[in-house]
Design brief:
heterodimer; A: alpha+beta; Fumarate Reductase Iron-sulfur Protein, Chain B, domain 2; 2 domains; 5-stranded mixed sheet; two-stranded antiparallel sheet; 8 helices; elongated; B: alpha/beta; Flavocytochrome C3, Chain A, domain 1; Methane Monooxygenase Hydroxylase, Chain G, domain 1; 5-stranded parallel sheet; 5-stranded antiparallel sheet; 18 helices; 38% helix; globular; EC 1.3.5.1 (chain B)
Chain lengths: 251, 644
């Protein structure tokens, strides 16, 4: 296939960026989207031009490092798919494809298509854990968890922290991401001790980072590559309201 | 130099407890006077950094990804072993130890492996306490499944994403320490050199991958938990960024590299489909619990199939060869990875392979779906089936998956003693970055176990023993040793940027990968290895003459990052070839064609090769120096591995 790519190029955080057009030729439908960019980058390098910087690592859809806003959609046109697992067979010969970085004030651009998602780490650091030191824990089977609860917690735990939910949201809200962790730990018996302070602290950090508000439109869940459900946001709200109503967070 | 493994005296089952009592302790109030650097934040690194922080040490943790949660441990699918015997099926610490030693073809260290089996039990407890959502039975207790090389169900799992869930557990423990200020995290930062002062590891030099700034960090001890080096082959199941640079540069500073030729080729990967391919994707070994591996019985049928004259469904049951079940009735499709890989290669070499290239075998779920129903299979492996469908555009519920072996895990790594310390005092290596626990072949579901064992339960004890003997004083980063290392890193980067040649970094990497796969891959022979050595040297010369690296150092420069890594792979590849040539036997992932039984099984030479080959660096292009650590087997008898 021959394609025309319109790609966002930006030297660094402080420089203005612009769309640049590149033709690419001879793309196989079996290539992944990132392999198609590899081909373009090899071509740019040979011509002595700077290759396009983009984030990627495992290329198995699990590390959450790849991003890309493709034709106006987070991770491209296929639902339930990360960019690294998106294949060129979903595009047609002669198509023009627009490629942009995640667009959110809380995710500033480092370069080209690479954005800074460290805000997510800081939200996790605000409480996305169970306070337990290594060693001195009970035998694993002393904490029985009904299968239905374990499965629900697992479903929430599958979030890969890629940021598609933020990119897809018109308000750049991080509610789906935060709700996934809050739900996972609120569902589990191990997570009860810090249940209230966790949700309060994580939501507070989310606001500090500059993510927008949730308006229940649901584009986050629609574009989530691993199918994190909107139910988690409902649960986050319940958790937050009940924590606030009985606040133990005295700070 | 004599390699002292520091294995404690006494009976196997008591060594670790006795050692834990014998190690020196650091008074809790004094722990804050010591700084520890951890490079890499996968299962081994994140768990170690978090635990050091909990104990009270000051920790600096580094990773090249944008977040520690992206380390490649995240991609592990199938599970983690532990000798819990919850199933009451005869498991025990000794059995897990025995299976691991045997699975590794008797080239691992008894004491380390026994300790691994012992602490495996604590790992599951720890992870559950952290909220890792393992699979559960309806009664609320933990579920188990079985993995290759074992006849008991001891593998704990979280659907097909066990690695992700375990890593998130360790990442959350790490986050807690970051929030407390005990761990300072440096993401998007790559270690480019090790700094040694008075013979002790005292710090590292790193490049900030965003600004290009070269920085030094000083500490009392350095832990490398940087994963394996499978990306030397270019195509592998590793993440694209996985590299050997930190470990290799420590090797160039004097750390011995052990058993580099032991590469695990995993039998169940999605086959290569084209020239452009950038990586290979693994299908979990757990699939072989229910999937049956087969190829057509004859070359003629396979040819018809490849030409498209017939479809899979046209092949009668009688014309299918379930070769693993036929040859290894006791273990069947769950033979260890080296055995399954070698047999896949054998049937494809016979011309019975499937798929357009003929380099694939079938992994068939038809019987399992008939037996348990599609819903049951989907519940067990659903995400793996989806992943397969996405990549291949084929529905694995309707037609069998095509799989072929691919480079997966490297059992070699930096040489370490029982304390996980390298031969450089103060430099430790954990997880896949060290060599000690898997011998010549790693059994399934044991990499996660080793990473977490090292990080949660081994290093936190042993590192104190070293630090307790050390004064508190810190080495300032303007010490000449730091300045010298910084200068070397800067010069190397400048040299890479100034060559301005014609061939891209990936082009060299792919060429190296071809040489490694063809001559030092699933099967090796002396002639091929000698040829490969010359080819690698030629390629390396050409790299330093003709590589093209654009941009400058003082910016995010992914081409420069890659160039540094490939430059190191070009040196490491030659050492792998040297090691493979030195080991005149076949064992585990190292199959020398000259040494095989009449049934094409690996033929070990216990008389001459029951040792760890630890290589000392003597300069690029010089012959490395071999040091041997004899392996003593006092608790298991060395026998020909048989899975029949």
């Amino acid at each position: 296939m021959d394609l025309t790519l319109k790609v966002w190029r930006q030297k660094d955080k402080n420089s203005p960026g612009q769309m640049v057009t590149y033709p690419v030729k001879g793309i196989s439908p079996d290539m992944s989207f990132l392999e198609m960019l590899d081909v373009l980058n090899e071509d740019l390098l040979v011509r002595g031009e700077e290759p396009i910087a983009f984030d990627h690592d495992c290329r198995e859809g699990i590390c959450g490092m790849c991003s890309l806003f493709i034709n106006g959609r987070a991770h491209g046109p296929e639902s339930g798919t990360t960019t690294c697992q998106l294949h060129m067979r979903h595009f047609s010969d002669g198509e023009t494809i627009t490629i942009e970085p995640w667009r959110a004030a809380a995710f500033p651009v480092h370069k080209d298509l690479v954005v800074d998602r460290s805000a997510f780490d800081r939200i996790q650091q605000a409480g996305g854990y169970i306070s337990v030191n290594t060693g001195g824990v009970p035998d694993a089977n002393e904490i029985p968890i009904p299968k239905t609860i374990a499965d629900k917690a697992f479903d929430a735990a599958t979030c890969i922290q890629c940021g598609a939910c933020v990119a897809a949201c018109k308000n750049a809200s991080a509610m789906l991401f935060v709700s996934a962790k809050v739900s996972q730990l609120a569902l589990l018996p191990q997570g009860q001790a810090e249940r209230k302070s966790r949700v309060e602290n994580m939501v507070a950090q989310m606001d500090i980072e500059g993510f927008g508000s949730c308006t229940n439109i649901g584009s986050c869940a629609a574009e989530c590559p691993v199918g994190i459900s909107l139910e988690n946001i409902a649960m986050l709200r319940r958790e937050f309201i009940s924590a606030k109503a009985t606040s133990e967070n005295l700070v | 130099m004599i390699l002292d493994s520091k294995i404690p005296e006494g009976p196997l089952a008591e060594k670790w407890d006795k050692h834990k009592f014998d190690v020196k302790l650091v008074n809790p109030a004094n722990k804050r006077k010591y700084d520890i650097i951890v490079v890499g934040t996968g299962l081994a690194g994140a768990s170690a950094a978090a635990t050091f922080g909990e104990l009270g040490y000051n920790v600096k943790a580094f990773c090249f990804q944008d977040s520690p949660r992206r380390a490649h441990s995240i991609a592990a699918q199938g599970g983690i072993n532990a000798a819990k015997n919850y199933q009451n099926d005869g498991d025990s610490v000794f059995r897990l130890f025995y299976d691991t030693i045997k699975g590794g073809d008797y080239r691992a260290r008894e004491a380390n492996v026994y300790r691994l089996a012992q602490v495996s039990v604590n790992i599951i407890d720890q992870c559950v306490a952290q909220g890792v959502p393992f699979a559960r039975e309806y009664g609320g207790l933990l579920a188990n499944r079985s993995f290759g090389g074992a006849q008991v169900s001891r593998t704990f799992y979280a659907r097909g994403q066990t690695g992700q869930q375990l890593l998130l557990g360790a990442y959350s423990a790490l986050n807690r320490q970051i929030a407390y200020g005990k761990v300072k995290m440096y993401p998007r930062t790559e270690m480019l050199d090790l700094v040694i002062v008075n013979g002790q590891a005292r710090g590292i030099v790193v490049r900030n991958l965003i600004t290009g700034q070269i920085e030094s960090h000083s500490a009392h001890a350095v832990v490398l938990a940087t994963g394996g080096y499978g990306n030397v082959f270019f195509l592998s199941t590793n993440a694209m960024g996985s590299n050997a640079t930190a470990a290799w540069r420590a090797h160039k500073k004097g750390a011995f590299f052990a058993n580099p030729c032991f590469t695990q080729i995993h039998p169940t990967c999605i086959p290569v489909s084209g020239e452009y391919q950038s990586k290979l994707t693994l299908m979990s070994e757990s699939l072989r619990n229910d999937g049956r591996v087969w190829v057509p019985k004859t070359k003629e049928i396979a040819e018809k199939l490849r030409r498209g004259d017939i479809k899979v469904s046209d092949i009668a049951e009688a014309d299918r060869d379930y070769y693993l079940e036929r040859k290894y009735p006791a273990f069947g499709n769950l033979v260890p990875r080296d055995v399954a890989s070698r047999n896949a290669k054998l049937v494809c070499d016979e011309g019975r392979g499937v798929g357009s290239t003929g380099l694939a075998v079938y992994l068939d779920f038809a019987d399992a779906i008939k037996r348990d129903g599609q819903a049951a299979i989907a519940a067990k492996y659903g995400n793996l089936f989806e992943m397969y469908a996405k990549i291949t555009d084929e529905n694995p519920y309707e037609r069998p998956m095509r799989i072929y072996p691919a480079v997966h895990y490297t059992m070699g790594g930096l040489w370490v003693d029982y304390n996980l310390m390298t031969n450089i005092p103060g430099l430790y290596a954990a997880g896949e970055a060290n060599f000690s626990d898997h011998g010549a072949n790693r059994l399934g579901a044991s990499a996660l176990m080793q990473g977490l064992a090292d990080g949660y339960f081994v290093l936190p004890y042993t590192i104190g023993d070293y630090l307790a003997r050390l004064p508190y004083d810190k080495v300032p980063v303007d010490h000449p040793a730091f300045k010298e290392a910084e200068q070397a890193v800067i010069s190397k980067n400048n040299e890479l940027l100034s060559i301005k040649g014609t061939r891209t970094v990936d082009d060299f990497h792919k060429a190296l990968g071809q040489i490694m796969w063809n001559y030092c891959g699933m099967a090796r022979n002396a002639e091929g290895l000698k040829f490969a050595k010359q080819e690698i040297r030629k390629l390396r010369d050409e790299f330093w003459r003709d590589v093209k690296v654009t941009g400058v150092n003082e910016e995010l420069n992914q081409t420069l990052e890659k160039a540094n890594r490939v430059a190191d792979f070009l040196e490491l590849g030659e050492l792998m070839v040297d090691d493979a040539l030195n080991r005149n036997e076949s064992c585990g992932g190292h199959f020398r064609e000259e040494y095989q039984t009449p049934e094409n099984e690996a033929l070990r030479d216990d008389e001459n090769y029951t040792y760890v080959a630890a290589w000392e660096f003597t300069g690029v292009g010089n012959e490395p120096k071999l040091h041997k650590e004899e392996l003593k087997f006092e608790n298991v008898k060395l026998t020909q591995r048989s899975y029949k």
